Amino acid sequence: MFREMTRKHKQLPQEECISILTEESRGVLSVLGDDGFPYGIPMNHFYNEADGCIYFHCGKQKSHRNDALRRCEKASYCVLDRGCPIEGDWAQRVKSVVVFGRVEIIDDWATIVDISTRLSHKFTQDEDYIQQEIQKSGPATLLLKLTPLHMTGKAVVEK
Question: Is residue 3 part of a domain?
């Protein structure tokens, strides 16, 4: 069902893909948008090692992304690492991960609080701030869970 990578010598092992998903904070979630056009939107994410799923939080309001996900739960998510320079060269070595899967909406309050708290720790350790934001914004939060069906990672040199 999913294609294999063409340049297998650039493929990352699954453990490295998971490491990138765990360490990096942002990526682009792509869904089947209006009139069959792809729609990609930058998102913060939390990779949960316990269940192997990727979680996103966003608003419950009507939006292009939310409407698209209600029509079709299939999505892909792409994350790039920060890259690292190659000594003596202008080029950088960059790693990316693409995950294909199905998105479901999670409306369990305890799960929303748990995942939102863990996602927030990727950005700040200020517990008071995190709890205030969850209490203020939590009721309007939509939690999305991407269950991976296929994942590939690749390392490239930007030349």
Answer: no
